Amino acid sequence: MNGDCLITVEPQVSPQIAMAPRNSRQLPPYRLASRAAHPRSTVIKVGEALIGGPKFVVIAGPCSVESEYQLVSTAKAVKESGAAILRGGAFKPRTSPYSFQGLEEEGLKLLARAREVTGLPVVTEVMDSGDIPLIARHADIVQVGARNIQNFSLLKKLGKVNKPILLKRGLMTTLDEFLMSAEYILAAGNGDVILCERGIRTFETATRNTLDLSAVPVLKERTHLPVIVDPSHAVGKARYVGPLCRAALAVGADGIMVEVHCNPSEALCDGEQSLTPRRFRELMDELSALAHLIQRES
Questions:
Q1: pLDDT per residue as tens digits for the range 64-119
Q2: What is the CATH number of domain 44-292?
Q3: 124 CB-near residues (< 8 Å, 6+ apart)
Q4: Beta strand 44-46 with 49-51: parallel, antiparallel or unpaired?
Q5: CA 159 to CA 76: how far, in whole Å?
Q6: The pTM is what?
Q7: Nearest to 165 by CA among 219, 230, 226
Q8: What phi, psi does 129 have (nearest 5°)?
Q9: Using H for helix, E for strand and C for coil, what is the string for 272-293?
Q10: Largest CB tally within 10 Å, which of 9, 52, 105, 176?
Q11: 154 vs 170: CA distance, rounded Å
């Protein structure tokens, strides 16, 4: 060695690894999301709803916020039928730049107005990390859409937000990749993550996407985080939404997110997959009957 000294350098341990359990070598890479590390199921309280608890939670509302009348009338209708949380997009990611992109901040104010009128907590999507403070001021749950599932810088910033995060599975995302995305939020400090299966891309063209209901029992086995299902975005056709909502309940999901619009034929976004308030009320009755048969609360 020509007299050179050997210097041993201690590796730096990140805070995320330091907070992992001591038996982390036996855990999957999504250490904090793993049921092996956290055997008890996580229950997230939003308003009066307990997501991940014994009751099947229904989130409902329009794909996008279009006007005060449209949003408030739909919010009243879904609450009367038994929905626990109101959904509505203020910032809308669209494939075409010429499609309706949402009302943005005005849409957030309308969501806050609908919450004031109905008492329903609201969930809406964030697309840009710069909008996180604005959205967090108005929303009770912050949604990450399928397009941003691996936007890791956004996920890390949402880990610092004191609001539950609803994380949607991407079109081409494996379940391990899905859980690793959740891990980014957990590792940054936010333990309130809700996983949402919303369909994956396959060779099938009869529906918009293919709803992967098998993801529900697999995720419930692997992670303590609550799991919900979004059939509306999966199939893209309102006539298929009801059967898949019932299937989500039967397969063990913690809840569903359904698109409802007071006038789907006039909707500016995803009208074809939106239920009318009347059909939503019928669906809620169907879910109640099914929940009774399988001894589940609804």
A1: 999 999 999 999 999 999 999 999 999 877 777 767 767 889 999 999 999 999 99
A2: 3.20.20.70
A3: 87, 88, 89, 90, 91, 107, 108, 111, 135, 138, 139, 141, 142, 143
A4: antiparallel
A5: 32
A6: 0.90
A7: 226
A8: -60, -25
A9: HHCECHHHHHHHHHHHHHHHHH
A10: 52
A11: 15
